[in-house]
Design goal:
CATH class of the domain at 137-281: Mainly Beta
Number of helices: 5
Shape: rod-shaped
CATH architecture of the domain at 137-281: Sandwich
Helix content: 10-25%
Strand content: 25-35%
Length: about 280
Amino acid sequence: MDDDSLDSFDDLFEPFGLEGKPDKEPATPRRQSPPRSTRAATTVEGAVACVSCGAPNDPDNRHCERCGARLARSQMPVAPQPMLRTTAGARALIVLASVVLGVAILALLVNMFSGGGGGTTETTNTTPTSLPTTPVGPLTPIAVNCNPPSSELSSYPCEALIDGDPATSWNAIDGGIGVEITFLFAPPVQITEMIIQNVEDECRFLRNHRMKGIEVSINDLTHTIVKELGDSRDLQRVDIRSIGTSSLTIRITSGYPGQTCDGKEPYFEMAAQDIYFFGRPLSGG
């Protein structure tokens, strides 16, 4: 076997360490890379990150220090709109204007409710139902009728109610309940009050029946006036608010019963002395 073959054979088994171990060579020290700059690792307060490489940059920079890309900047915050403030002079002017407006409104209301100006005079002249200027006075009916006619005593007729004579009186049989007394006026009148006078003599007053409940109907009013009279010889007043009356009817619905007086038995009739009316005539007089 020649030398070339032996060298090839040694090369074949060299990887398996079959050849004698060579002497150890001293280990070469490993080079250490220099430490990286800490500038990139240091995070600047308020730093802006680059959208291209992610490197932090000073917020005042317009371009990235690493890659040179343009840095995106956030929109500058908008300051809030200042509050509107009024000066002392403006506030005083507002107060003064409010006072003037209030005084004007108050004067307008006083003028409306006091009826001032020419409006009231015009309304009085053009309204047909306004009160006449004639003063209130006594009114005399032209006639009086009792219904039914058989209810009155011939010696004590209905006409006695309007003759103004205290010596005469009206009497109705059977206590007078249900009797209607109608008074006629011509020309029409405006009645403000009606007064009923019972018999003034004490014993005659007590022994006769007296009116208690009455219903008053007036031809120019749609409602009926209901009144309960007192059991007294005093004048019995009934308020009337008619406009233009030509007839008034009293219907007797109840009465006070007669009583004994000085040992004398009561009567079965109802009695009244006079009935008076007060108001204004609408025309004539």
